[in-house]
């Protein structure tokens, strides 16, 4: 765990200044003034243990650490923060929920708060405070955290994932512009393979990458796990078409994608083995900060997801909601910390530190400086508004969150693409698993 202090922050001040973040006295002066006026006063002797997703962009880490240190100094709250991979956040949050101990706050993926609706501290007051102050919440972000009229958590940000590609390779393949539809995208991937500059997307249990692109393929064909009434409808002609399309794509991929996790495509792209994938901006940021990868940086571009036969965007971007457990001894401190994170003086600088890896969920931040700092960042600004909730057209809740966490859609596609099952068998297995959840 990391313990955040004023001294630690000041030691990192030079790095933080490069992101434009408030540092030193200015940051602490703001934090003290905010704490004095905050609707939530941290309990005396408050101590918060916070689990968050693992950092991918160092400058985001610096900016986040800055706000944590400032909050600690301003409120007197002891802050113990540790990070876990996307794959490990949900299991560890489940342990805390089941035992009623170990964590005060958990910050993870998709609809994490919906997994524990009876174990979370309601956040209605925090959501109202921030929404009124900063132009309201984007639709999918709000759905991620709401159950009826109650906010089970706060949608801090969206990790927008878009097409990341080497323009020299797509140009050579005959595509001067990135394809905007499914047939064009498949043809491009075939041409990339023929030129030995392949694409690749995770078919393994990658909580972020795998779920994102495979739901995009599924939804793009008008297929869904459940309908508006939560009736399981995965076994359908539309799903069969999605499976066939995905297998055609898979046959163009770099070898090994069925075993990929969320970091595999980053490594392959930066190693010069992969020429098109879907990812957050972390690949580009990683190249941009490496002096040996100047050519790769200049050759890397981003594009929106192509649109499927359904005729409209069907993106699944990664919601990053934070929750506080209702067994915390310090509910006021927990709410204060969450609200503090999303205040303008912190949030815009944090977005700048993330360099496009994170996208706002509050409408007022659409004009944050990060989106014009580099033209290649601009695509990612749209993530929170273009995404569907993780439930697709179904109800956002514990069942939808479970289906995502259990990789049902990912495994259905992987079973067919790798030859483990045929189309009917892959759909039937997914249907069986979904019906067990949606009883």
TrEMBL record:
It comes from the Bacteria. It is found in: Periplasm. GO terms for cellular component: periplasmic space; plasma membrane. Keywords: Periplasm, Signal, Transport. GO terms for molecular function: trehalose transmembrane transporter activity. Belongs to the bacterial solute-binding protein 1 family. This is ABC transporter substrate-binding protein. It comes from Bradyrhizobium diazoefficiens (strain JCM 10833 / BCRC 13528 / IAM 13628 / NBRC 14792 / USDA 110).
